[in-house]
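Lay summary. Proteins are chains of building blocks that fold into shapes, and those shapes determine what they do. In this project we predict the shape from the chain. Here is one chain we studied, written as its sequence of building blocks.
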Amino acid sequence: MRVLAAMSGGVDSAVAAARAVAAGHDVVGVHLALSRTRDAMRSGSRGCCSKEDAGDAARAADVLGIPYYVWDLSEEFARDVVDDFVDAYAAGETPNPCLRCNEKIKFAAVLDRALALGFDAVCTGHYARLDASVPALRRAVDDGKDQSYVLAVLRADQLRHAMFPVGDTPKPEIRAEAERLGLRVAGKPDSHDICFIPTGDTQGFLAERLGSRPGSMVDSSGEVLGTHDGVHGFTVGQRKGLGIDRPAADGRPRYVLGIEPVSGTVRVGPEASLDVSAISARSPVWTSGVAPSEAFACVVQVRAHGGTAPASVTPSGDGVEVALAEPLRGVAPGQAVAFYRPDDDGDRVLGSATITATA
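And here is the predicted shape, written in a compact code that computers can read:
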């Protein structure tokens, strides 16, 4: 097969490309230039789109003996990932930009271009497994690195042209393999946080773009406890940085329970009030390509790592209703809810949807 290997400049994508070469595929490497200010994108282990990363990807491609190109997708990334992130926070939601990047950039813009150029598949360093004959997306062998959640937005037609060569191997073994291959990125730190916020200061990033939008901080009784500069500075489940100058009556910490962007109200209360038993979600994507016609049992996941529970999912119009068998805590609109089969060790992804409300 002709394979386009997306090479971020990290060890995972480098080894994924190496494995595609070893499997006998005709491999071409491509680095995605996603930032409009790439000179300033690397700070320690943060980010993944700097000139340093492009150089690391180029050197890995040279070691592997494959052609290498850089594709500038910064406009698409700014529109579909960064702007989407900012708009979601302004609407009182908590988005996952990595999930959106996989959906809109790596397996939409990149895959579409790759297929148009005559490639058969796009290969990435994501930690997930793929049974291409179904297609079936599964959790990675390394639970601590599993990225099936952020890939659960992919459609069946996209999965048929995807390759995840490192998903069957624990991360330490991937680094050892890179060392054996002579790849300089073998010991390179993993990227962390949000790649387009290299400082890690999400609130500062949002404040710079959204400005001040004052509102009230209220408790469950409706008492105003203080004011804030904008709902974009908060997310459901947040405990620190609330700016409340007095403790709760019982002396226990307060948490953000809900965000109302129209009125600018942030509701806070006790930790126990974060528990939810039902989730409504929109725009479901089914990895089989076929939407279920009736309710089904599954295991749901609401965060990239953790936040899982048995559930029953019922299709409803252009969305789904999720009834949880046991409560989950701190579930926020804007997050994705991913569905996994309850058998097969709960590792097969059925699909996902975007959370709109909880109860």
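What the prediction tells us: The chain has three domains: 2-125+165-187, 212-269, 274-358.
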